[in-house]
User: Fold these one by one.
Assistant:
Number 1:
Amino acid sequence: MKQHHGRKRISRRVDDIEPQKIRVMFDLAAEYDGDLVHLELGEPDFDTPGHIVEAAHEAATAGATRYTPNAGLLELREAIAERLSEQTGQNVDPGSEVVVTNGGVEALHLAIHTVADPGEEVLIPTPAWPNPISQAKLAGAVPIEVSMPPEAGFEPDPDTIIDAIGQDTAAVSLTSPSNPTGRVFPPEAIERIVEAAAEHGAYVLADEVYRNLTYGETPARIRSVTDHDEWVLSVDSFSKTYAMTGWRVGWLSGPADVLGEVTKIHESTTSCVNAPAQHAAIAALTGSREPIEAMKDAFRSRRDFVVDRIGSIPHVSVAPPEGGFYAFLDVSALEGSSMEIAKRLLYDYQVVTAPGVAFGDGGEGHIRLSFANDRDRIATGLDRLESMIRTELGPA
Ligand SMILES: Cc1ncc(COP(=O)(O)O)c(C=O)c1O
């Protein structure tokens, strides 16, 4: 049989993609038989609020079971555009500047495929959620990790990012708040980075899926703190804010000339987003904010608990996350790589975490703990972590 790149008909592009390192821990945990505390989860532990589920049910019962327009239901795009216009003070056109996607993940995939040519670079400040790396590879582009300095909890460093922007840069991914570090990009840093990107004709991919889960003031939208918003592609999602990860609804918004092209890919890959789920998303945007605020309050109180509790454990530290539901814990005092540490935590202490290296080489020496779990389980997980630290390193 004819071999292709040494393998049986697997394209080079796909062959090049490595399995995510977070996945390794999921798989090991799935095989493990015991009372595990799950602190690796990247999704809210809450159920989708009832009025959102009800809206999908009603829509499906009333016959909303057919294809929708490729870019999404106009009513949903109008609700998204209205919100976005309020948040940015810009006039967002629902007809040409918003596309409804299968989660934030598809929005990023579409954006990268639309703006990056094979061989061009996609810059990714790390530690970062790894999907844009594989998405860039799938587009034939070259993902370039730009490591943020670990001091001060990986506070974004605009100079390092700007220095990495060059004539081959097609896009710069800015995730704010960040998964895993919880850092929010300050507006001055954003302004400088977008300006540098614009000078090089590169787009900024503004991933804001955790924007509503911030614990200080909600940060300004990235596109609203720059004079070059025509170079910003905004990505957001219903997944985290509304506890809707499994519904798969997100959106991409940006200039009409780019968004018009995006739908070409959407058409050949997914046609449109699940119709009842789009109705659920309309209810999420237009319905009661109460359940949303209650979830956010719960995340805030867990975050305070986690930060306090970690403060009482010797040899480890965490910069309090400004947003998202992760604590990126410095465990560099322990022996071994972050993967080895995560495996010891799993096998010897029954706590599942994500190793820092899953978020880029600069994430070594860290593990990510998610507080998308109930408070008692988080407390048990942190007790177990403390016993590992004290057993391996002794008292402070
Ligand atoms: C930073 C970041 N962006 C985007 C996503 C995509 O989520 P979804 O596709 O469910 O909207 C995630 C999910 O973990 C994320 O952490």
Note: The pocket of pyridoxal-5'-phosphate is lined by residues 42, 103-105, 129, 175, 179, 207, 209, 237, 239, 245, 250 (CB under 6 Å).
Number 2:
Amino acid sequence: MRPLSSEQILRIWEIGQRQHPVDRALTLLVFSYPDQSVANLASLTVGQRDALLLALREMTLGNTLNCFAQCPQCGEELEFTLETAQIRLSDPSQSLEPDYAFTIAGFEGRFRLPNSFDLAAIAGDQTPEIAKSSLLRRCLLQAHHNGTEISHQELPPPIVSQLATHMAEIDPQAEILFDLSCPACQHEWQILLDIVSFFWAELSAQARRLLLEVHQLARHYSWHEVDILAMSATRRNLYLKMIG
Ligand SMILES: [Zn+2]
């Protein structure tokens, strides 16, 4: 994996604008791992995928994430920074099993961890409940209760919920939650950091900045887009200051 170049950022942005977030994540990985097939990258678990995206973000834009949140109680706007090390919950090279066994209160069976194919399959589901049920149907490979085979619909909700917790423990990077506390009203709550949408928003802003820089430099010096994009950011900024 290497940092994304300016040219790659623009190409990814162009392709990704028309894509669902699940496919945007894959587009980013395809550019980072050109020797891997899309099917292989889509088969990574959600946690493995997000660990790679976090590593790519770190290489391309650095270790510090500038975050914003709004207090759900009083509406106060919070600005804070996170270091990538604080939200790295698993090692991207850590190997996972194709499937896992579970035994919870008399229910037992096997499941696999959700991947991008699963996320794509549930993307069109109307409600979170339907999506949850579709995900369970896809990832639950077999289930038994007292020796009798049962379907995913026959698993009681408390067992499903324990199974989800178990999955999150095995693939922790799939869900990054962290605690916030409001300086204005002391309300405490947890927010979910979605690395795909976070990184995408940053790349979109970066792409727009790059286009503006190309526009200004090309207009002033008549340089070609490809040459301007191939320059380092430092060099582009110096030229921009000179013409500014
Ligand atoms: Zn507040």
Note: The CA atoms of residues 26 and 69 lie 27 Å apart.
Number 3:
Amino acid sequence: MLGKLRSAAIIGVDASLVDVEIDVSGGLPTFAVVGLPDSTVRESRDRVRSAVQHSGFQFPARRITVNLAPADVRKSGASYDLPIALGLLAAVGILPPERLAGLLVIGALSLDGRVQAVRGVLPVALLAARLGQRLVLPAANLPEGRIVEEVGLLPAASLAQVVADLNNGAETMPPVTVETAARAAGTTLDLGDVRGQRGARRAVEIAAAGRHNLLLVGPPGAGKTLLARRLPGILPCPTFEEAVASTAIHSVAGLLEPAAGLLPDRPFRAPHHSASHVALIGGGRDPRPGEVSLAHNGVLFLDEIVEFDRRALEALREPMEDGVVRVARALRTVQFPSRFLLVGAMNPCACGYAGESSERCRCSRTDINRYHDRLSGPLRDRIDLTVRVERVPFQLLADDTPAEDSRTVRDRVRRARERQTARYRGDKSSTNADLSGPRLREHGRLDLQGLVLVERAMQRLGLTGRGFDRIRRVARTIADLDESPAIRRSHVAEAIQYRVIH
Ligand SMILES: Nc1ncnc2c1ncn2[C@@H]1O[C@H](COP(=O)(O)OP(=O)(O)O)[C@@H](O)[C@H]1O
Ligand SMILES: [Mg+2]
């Protein structure tokens, strides 16, 4: 007899349909899985055998063949355990085969027959909704499955329970409505905790308003990490679609707490400078998203940015330009979304004290230049804002009057973003940081006074054409924060301050 049902494979951050067929026929007892399973899927034979027996069913001592189709999609992980077990029970007549029609099934099995959580449930639930199928999923993954409003879910705690439910024609759980925006940004760190730092706070606000990449330069302990961590909380609340995308990426990476459901906040990722290329960019044999994708729609914070491997920093170019990472594999190229706001932090020099009045710094001018040159040109070209973060004097640190909180700043950021959305409607770019070429010339037009200012700055500071572009993009955002349709002299004057310093 033949058991047939459907399951799913994860490709990148999307789910793709997999047909599972199980044939049980006469002959010597064997158990084979075909259709490009990797070793993790082949191991499911032992789990399925044990789980079936411990659930009170007899394991057929016959010739069992499992086929996973299409054969050109690599199958990986333990999530085929449950569909294989159910198909097997259908093939031997314990479960009427028609009970498996219209179902998509995922779940891992433990040896005693319990169903265990798997990664990538959200993309599979989205696929089930698209196909109008019901989803059998591990009970532990129910909060993740419930994010998708249009799909009927049947939670499985154990193989015996799900077989009984299907035999009884159990109803799936009704779809639910998920609320997001209301919960968003409730748990993030607040700018109200930051004492002083007017200049740096302003730069962080401009970065959020125009989605400009930001470099914080300052001595150790000045508050660079403190500020960077507060950036997600002043970005506009994630939309439902953005929250779904973040949750799916974390789920596929295996980083979602099973009970978590939809991630309410924009991600903040801070990989260490010793992180491997794959950890940062993504990849591997069974490609997983890297830090640049986990930071999608949020903030990627590279502390001690000059300490990162040069090759890894170079690899940031593709995601920073295209908003995606492409990982080439033998059978197909997998794409991971990775549109993030980059925040880099660095000391002003190797010893950390250049530019301080204390004259503690022992680095020569050449040393300092060499230190800054470790940040390569292409990456620097994509960083619109550079700001010096000074150490805050003790009297200010000890002052307990609360500073402006994140909610107030977020409101200004949201309004500035709305102006950009309206201006770039129907355009490829959505924020000022995306402007380049003719579109930058159109939307970043300066008046005569502004041009004079920039010209003088270019002569005085030795700015290049790229520096001019950065000033225009930033000035556009400052004007948007000021609710001004035109870029005025004062906006340009402020933008000029956020240039490379050393
Ligand atoms: N402006 C500030 N307001 C409040 N606390 C601060 C400020 N600057 C520094 N601190 C305190 O000093 C600690 C070190 O700051 P941190 O952000 O780690 O410095 P950096 O990353 O520049 O080395 C913070 O955890 C915080 O407790
Ligand atoms: Mg730090």
Note: The longest strand covers residues 14-25.
